[in-house]
From TrEMBL:
PANTHER family, per the entry: CBS DOMAIN-CONTAINING PROTEIN, CBS DOMAIN-CONTAINING PROTEIN CBSX3, MITOCHONDRIAL
Naturally occurring in which organism (per UniProt): Trichococcus palustris
Record flagged with keyword Cell membrane: no
Ribosomal protein listed as a keyword: no
Protein name: Uncharacterized protein
Gene3D superfamilies according to UniProt: 3.30.70.260, CBS-domain (3.10.580.10)
């Protein structure tokens, strides 16, 4: 999966010349916490509620509210925005976006294409959505975890043949390498947990867990 598949393209952007108080109003209107700052279609910065808060006089200041509002109306987004924006290409792998977020301590990445042209934005929530989709959380069926202690060729092919012989459709499949063994997680279009367990054990497979997942709203 790539970033392009899960990024949001319904963007709300802002110009560097916009007053900070207008940026706050825009965030409130759209119920968002950050705004990409653009020049034409090119991203040049990022403004967030946190950045504005850090650059706003605190309640302990000697300034009165009129003076605070005056400063907010005078200060532009370009005066305080983050100029060193971490971006990601829309063709990048989704896991690359996850790694970049974790390593840089951010929860959002502007998505660009050639020429640093802003085309979308991807957030932690989008990464979570992809994870949920991969594991088929909302799809009813049997979820079986098979423990493979000898990592060898042909295991997935063998499992596929077993389910095919039983006329059971594979909905999702994923593998996880753990210390000393591999787990194959398979979701199947079936309700027969006991029958699937028996068939896999008959072929010598160790079952880590097996459950039936009902349809979720």
């Amino acid at each position: 999966m790539d970033v392009n598949s899960y990024m949001s393209t319904d963007l709300v952007t802002i110009q560097s010349s916009t007053k900070v108080i207008e940026a706050l109003d825009l965030m409130k209107e759209h119920k968002i916490h950050r705004l990409p700052v653009v020049q034409g279609e090119t991203i040049i910065g990022l403004i967030t509620e946190g950045i504005i808060e850090r650059n706003t006089p605190s309640t302990m200041t000697s300034l009165d509210m009129h003076e605070v509002n005056y400063l907010l109306n005078k200060t532009t987004v370009g005066d305080i925005m983050e100029k060193r924006v971490i971006t990601i290409n829309k063709e990048a792998l989704l896991e690359e976006a996850a790694v970049m977020m974790r390593e840089n301590g951010v929860s959002v990445l502007p998505v660009v294409e050639a020429g640093n042209r802003l085309v979308g934005i991807i957030t932690e929530k989008d990464i979570f959505s992809a994870f949920i989709d991969v594991l088929g959380y909302y799809t009813p069926g049997v979820r079986v975890v098979v423990n493979i202690h000898e990592d060898k060729k042909g295991v997935l092919e063998d499992l596929t043949e077993i389910f095919s012989e039983e006329n059971i459709n594979i909905q999702q499949i994923a593998t996880y390498r753990k210390l000393g063994f591999v787990q194959v997680v398979v979701q199947l279009d079936s309700k027969d947990t006991e029958g699937i367990r028996a068939k896999l054990e008959e072929h010598g497979y160790e079952i880590g867990s097996i459950i039936y997942k009902p349809e979720r709203a």
